[in-house]
Amino acid sequence: MSAPAFKEWQLITEALGSGSQIIILRKGGITEGRSGFQTKADRFWLFPTFFHAQREKTKPAAAQWIAPANVDGPETITLRYFADLVGTAFVSDWTTIAALDRFHFWTEAAVRDKFDWSQPPGLLVLTVRVHRLSTPLVLPLTPAMGGCKSWIDLPLDFAAHASTPVLDEQAFAKRRNALKL
User: Which of 5, 22, 65, 170 would give a disulfide with 14, using CB separation of 3.0 to 4.6 Å?
Assistant: First the structure.
């Protein structure tokens, strides 16, 4: 069995896993080309990546989640979370994107770069409900997991791994409603 995994900065993965963030802003990876990002599944693993400029492209409050690059070592990666996609919206109005600032940990400059990259200007806003694994999974890194792409496939079944939502129903609903998307 194979399941999709979404590649995201380690810091943002941890913000999602703490329940402090419930949205992902995406335009697309380099290998996705000008057609941009496409959602592949309603449930996916959160695959942390170690981008060298994460600290500079995130707000100071996010520093609590920064781990050293290759924290798992050069040959393994640890999965702690998966997400259920509960909403998507392509937002082409900068004012609407700017109003989401309190709901994420990217800097305004980083968000603006994503917003303006490629045509049309805008970002896909993914609203996700994140689940924490009871026991993290340590996987060997393979060449297929590398590269600037948003999605990879992993040989893992969600149902085989016990988990709990990081936010209860009421807390999640309150944050989702505050988004006003």
Answer: 65
Cis peptide before 165 (omega within 30 of 0): no
Q: Which two tokens stand for residue 139?
A: 């996987």
pLDDT digits (tens, 9 = 90+) for 26-84: 986 555 555 557 788 899 999 998 876 788 899 999 888 877 554 555 688 899 999 99
Do you find a cis peptide bond into 74, omega within 30 degrees of 0?
A: no
Angle at 96 between CA 92 and CA 102, to 5 degrees: 130
The model carries a pTM of: 0.90
Six-digit token pair at 11?
Answer: 């810091």
Supply the DSSP symbol for 29. Answer: -
- pLDDT given at position 163: 96
In sequence order, the β-bridge partners of residue 79 are 137
- Collapsing DSSP to helix, strand or coil, 2 comes out as coil
**Domain segments of the chain: what residues?**
3-179
Q: Beta-carbon neighbour count of residue 104 at 10 Å?
A: 22
Number of alpha carbons in the 13 Å side-chain half-sphere of residue 38: 7
Query: Which residue has 């329940």 as its token pair?
Result: 19
Q: What is the dihedral of CA 60, 62, 68, 73, to 10 degrees?
A: -160
User: What would the CATH number be for the domain defined by 3-179?
Assistant: 2.30.130.30
